[in-house]
Input
Amino acid sequence: MARNIPFFAAPTYLLLITALCYRVAADGLVNEEVKRTVDLSTHIAKITAEILLSNQGDSAVHNFILAVEPDLAPHLAYVGASVSDFRMNLPFPTHITQAERQLVVFQGNHYLYSPYPTRSQTTRVRLASKTVESYTKLGNPSKSDEAIEYGPFRDVAPFSEDTMKVHYENNTPFLTISSITRIIEVSHWGNIAVEETIDMRHTGAFLKGPFSRYDYQRQSDSGISSVKSFKTILPASAQDVYYRDEIGNISTSHLQILEESVEVEVRPRFPLFGGWKTHYIIGYNLPSYEYLYTLGDQYALKMRLVDHVYDDQVIDSLTVKLILPEGARNIHVETPYPIDRIPDQLHYTYLDTFGRPVLVASKNNLVEQHIQDVVVHYTFNKILMLQEPLLVVGAFYILFFTVIIYVRLDFSITKDPAAEVRMKVASITEQVLTLVNKRLGLYRHMDEVVNRYKQSRDTGALNSGRKSLEADHRTLTNDISSLQARLKTEGSDLADKVGEVQKLDGQVKDLVGRSCQEAERLVAGKVKKEAYIDNEKTLASKRLELVTRIDSLLDTL
Amino acid sequence: MAEQHTAADGKHKASPNAGGSLHGNSRTNAVGGGGGKGGLSGGLAQPAGWQSLLSFTILFLAWLAGFSSRLFAVIRFESIIHEFDPWFNYRSTHHLTTNGFYEFLNWFDERSWYPLGRIVGGTVYPGLMVTAGLIHYVLNLLHLTVHIRDVCVFLAPVFSGLTSISTFLLTRELWNQGAGLLAACFIAIVPGYISRSVAGSFDNEGIAIFALQFTYYLWVKSIKTGSVFWSIGCCLSYFYMVSAWGGYVFIINLIPLHVFVLLLMQRYSRRVYIAYSTFYIVGLVLSMQIPFVGFQPIRTSEHMAAAGVFALLQAYALLQYLKDRLTKQEFQTLFFLGVSLAAGVVFFTIHIPIIASVSEHQPTTWVSFFFDLHILVCTFPAGLWFCIKNVNDERVFVALYAISAVYFAGVMVRLMLTLTPVVCMLSAIAFSSVFEHYLGDDMKRENPPIEDSSDEDDKRSSGNLYDKAGKVRKHVSEQEKAEEGLGPNIKSIVTMLMLMLLMMFAVHCTWVTSNAYSSPSVVLASYNNDGTRNILDDFREAYYWLRQNTDEHARVMSWWDYGYQIAGMANRTTLVDNNTWNNSHIALVGKAMSSNESAAYEIMRSLDVDYVLIIFGGVIGYSGDDINKFLWMVRIAEGEHPKDIRESDYFTPQGEFRVDKAGSPVLLNCLMYKMSYYRFGEMQLDFRTPPGFDRTRNAEIGNKDIKFKHLEEAFTSEHWLVRIYKVKKLENREPLEHKLRSIVPRQKYTSKKTAKRKRGHIRNKLVLKKGKKLNKK
Output
């Protein structure tokens, strides 16, 4: 009864495992054949073990226990079904110059650390380069170009340990994210804003001595372990990507939009040598329909708890802040792995009144395998969507209303009755002026009518024109006199002047009438042309005189 | 009607100054008859609301145009603080917003002027920081989460809108509404003002011009009304100006000058007395509230003119009072003349040295006048002439403003800024009058001239804009008579010409803004032949490296130009910065830069320097680098340390400053030279030039084999623009070799003894010193 059982994930329960181990050993499980691969080609050690397991006991086995060496346990970042990531590569020497290559020591176990006895096992170590300074020689391992083969070891007892030490050259970027704060802000208006604040350092061998730009530019292998740039893969729908720090946009970045992702070539302002660090902010927007699911008032947000920053990433400490819309209630979170929740906060941003709930969580020691989805369920009353537009409308309403109030009402401390009367008089005189002007306009219109009559000799048109003049004139005159009466009641001396204007206007009217008659007589042939012209001239001059007087009166108004 | 209004106005005012208002009446009427004619926008005046709507729209558009034309830098680059001083302002504003106002006032900045430090709270004009901080605070109170950097970047463009509004108000007071609108449009886009107020140029001048114009508006208003209310408003605005910019001295001299000239012109009235007395006393007290100004207003010479005019005004008022009692006319006039002449002499003798002391910059060239003001510089004398022709109290003011500003601008390029507003106003007046004459024909039917004085009276007495009674005065029947006898062709040609000038002005403004004034100077850009752009971000690269990868308390030595940027972007302690308050400290840095390495190391050790930062443009041909500024370092160092540094040592015998082989050996071995060209001798930039060819100075460097003993290269930016060197600590004394071990103790003992003995032996010392001195001479 031999089965190939994959590992089951046991992230941090090491103590439990050691306590149980003897009882477990009695179960009769035996590792028939183990193929371990230690991948040291990057800055993290990935240990994969393929285990052929047989149950030699009587009863069925439901559990399989994976043990981790006590020394390694603090460095363990992730255990998956096929891979476990350790951060056990230590640079040695710890300080190198720009021209030197980076050498790294890996310390591990030759054997699979297991609570079960092992029949046969091999360990294959994959290296980053051909150059190996030294390695432990247990069982006469064979070394090929970039790999060392140990074993096969036969019949290894449970919990057997034997230190394996490999000292080799590894120039892959030893980048570590010392802290990352990921803020996800959900808006029900269709947008999810993501912003990551990243502190990053080069945890390889420290740079010793000067940094020479000349060498770095002119010699290809100078500063070979330094990091010039790396790629961050963002979701395909990411928009408005920004990459900046405290002093502004980092202009050295490039963005490439691919079919399935958006790739940002993150190039820090300066190349990162051993021990150097940098700090930046990267942010982007996502359409919410890809991540936000809704059913009635129920909402579920499914987002990556932590996202890709660079390949084989290592994160020392992660803080995630999930900002939900204002008014979200009954929040509960499903995380793919245990994560420390920090008490919720409130966040205020545009047009908020009572604050948006913020879920805060933190976790230490993460690797690429931790890029998994978190699901947040909450309820949200859709009516609350109206709150923000209404707030804006209300604010503008109040603004306009106050302006209206301010303009319409008099807020002066001292009452000035004279000024009020003056204002009233002013408005009346203004009306008078327009009316008088209109009336003068009528006369000019009449002149035109008369001229046309002189040419066309159409008496009907003349009469109708005269009639309309009479009618309009009467209404205008009446209006003016009523205004004059109002002026009188206000006690203004302007009333007299208006009266004078009226008088003068009457004379003008007469003159217009006379010129009209003259024209009729001319047409009828009762007057000679020369006489008519003379008459017309005197009439015109009289009229002009009157109009000037009216104007001068108006000016004094 | 106008009389009626002004008369009522006189009643409306406080009764004690009835005499003043009478005086005012006759004057304003004279103005109305002679000068101000209808506004451009007056054509639609039938319902008065149209006019206010139109002016509101024009002002709004002017604001918008002014704001958007200042955004070139933001659009081309990013929202970033520009140049040098703004970085300090930004840093202080940041400090203000994070630590609060009182903490800011008490801020002792130990990160600058190491080891002296700087009392920032007492040595800055806090107006700018407080304004930005306040805006940020209010926005955050409303939950508008705007970063303080964005507030700082966009503050100047926003204030340019306020400037154009206050210019509109001032010009309306001086002439009429149409001219006001034109002036608002001019100032919104004129390059002379844009140069100091593009987005990102977070500097005092950005808000100070608004404060200046607004103060002048309120001053004109208070001198027109003689009301304490406007005077107090003027004082508050003056207070804001004092808190914002050192240029407040211009106000505190121009206003007394105005009053003084009014007195000389026999235009004294109670309004002048009230306005100036209030302004001087309240303004003095308020201005002394700014820590940086302190007691200067009663101690320094540039404020004495104001005090003198104040005393003179009191004396004059007393004489006026006595005149009613005693009728000794001759005596009094003699007295008046004597006093005024004395005061005038005092005024001008005091005034000139100030200008001389301020004018450290070079005088303005004619080209830059045209470049910054374009046609306005040609038209503003016309406006000035119009103002003088129809003179009244406030036009005296603008004339004085114009004359003094022209003088200052001629003396010093920087003061072009104070000239710009008045040029805009006067040009607007000129254009407005021309348009009235030449654009008026088709409008005249409905729009005869409007008398501005009555317009103002209306507004003042009725208090709102809806009442425009008295304006609509139509001589319908008489339009033919009013013609000036100009043919329509001439009119349209002149109008077209004017419009074309204005159009060219707008084009020029945009061009200048885009090309000359919209570079952040922190980020450089170069264009390839195919139009693509390369951004050279070396400054920020190096500063950010300092910020991230040096000790938090590391001390960085650099020439003072970069002090503010290092403090702002790298957040590291600097030795000297753009504040330049301590010349000897700057000289010490200059001495370190211009000495040889070991001498410089002594200085740097004594100053605790950890890093040295220099700017080197030889790789990309950037001309503003430290080698080009080097002679200034030498000169300043020589000023303080004439024994050690001599400028002539850095020149070739022919008196040339050369970096190639012919250069003087002192230059080729000084610290600045070595730091600039370290390993540059190996670098071949292209195949036509030899290795070590400096593109900025077009020369092959003379010293290619540069070795450092006490320094090491810590960082060099991508295009070598910024180079940072680390000052090594004193080395551990090397394990002494067998020879030395036996000798050293003896030497020590003997040397001590001889030192003590030598104190007694004068002869030896004297001999040694004599030899040296003789050599020097």
Chain A has seven helices and 29 strands. The first strand of chain A starts at residue 2 and ends at 3. Chain A has a mean pLDDT of 81. The two ends of chain A are 119 Å apart (CA to CA).
